[in-house]
Amino acid sequence: GRSGKAGKPKFGWLLSENGAALYGVSSQALSPPSVGWKAFTGEAPAPVSLEIFASLADASLHLAWAASAEAEARLEAEDWTAAHEALSRGLEVLARSGARLTDTFE
């Protein structure tokens, strides 16, 4: 990256889809920052904050747990179809992550 303040390297981070840069931010950190994103070709406003995960497995588990919590709420409301859809979404995320139940998530 280019030099930033005090000669520290500066990195550019992009969120893209199909090769199009939707949002971006520059930072001196070696990992993407959670705030400060700007819209490029993505819909405005840019994300105000992002949750950053160390690995695909961490992100997948987070999404699966969120889907599970949504399913529980839908079951409480006796919305069976929405509960089924939420659980299916959570299982699909886990299946696409490539993780197996016997794998350690590091």
Task: Walk me through the structure.
Helix content is 37%, strand content 20%. The model has no long low-confidence stretch (mean pLDDT 84). It contains two helices and four strands; from the N terminus they run ββββαα. The chain has helices at residues 56-76, 80-97, and strands at 2-3, 9-17, 20-27, 38-39. Helix 1 (56-76) runs antiparallel to helix 2. With 106 residues, the chain is an alpha+beta fold. The two termini are 28 Å apart. The radius of gyration is 18 Å and the shape is elongated.
Brief digest:
With 106 residues, this protein is an alpha+beta fold. The chain has helices at residues 56-76, 80-97; strands spanning 2-3, 9-17, 20-27, 38-39.
- Terminal Cα span: 28 Å
Number of DSSP helical runs: 2
Uncertain stretches of 5 or more adjacent residues: none
Considering DSSP H and I runs of 4 or more, what fraction of the residues is helical? 25-40%
Provide the spatial order of strands within the biggest beta sheet: 1-2-3-4
Largest sheet: 4 strands, antiparallel
Specify the overall morphology: elongated
**Beta-strand level of the residues, as a percent range?**
15-25%
What is the alpha-carbon Rg in Å? 18 Å
Q: What is the string of helix and strand elements?
A: EEEEHH
The tally of beta strands, per DSSP, is: 4
Helix vs. strand class: alpha+beta
What does the average pLDDT come to? Answer: 84
Task: Describe the protein's topology.
Layout: E1 2-3, E2 9-17, E3 20-27, E4 38-39, H1 56-76, H2 80-97
Antiparallel strand pairs: 1-2, 2-3, 3-4
Helix pairs in contact: 1-2
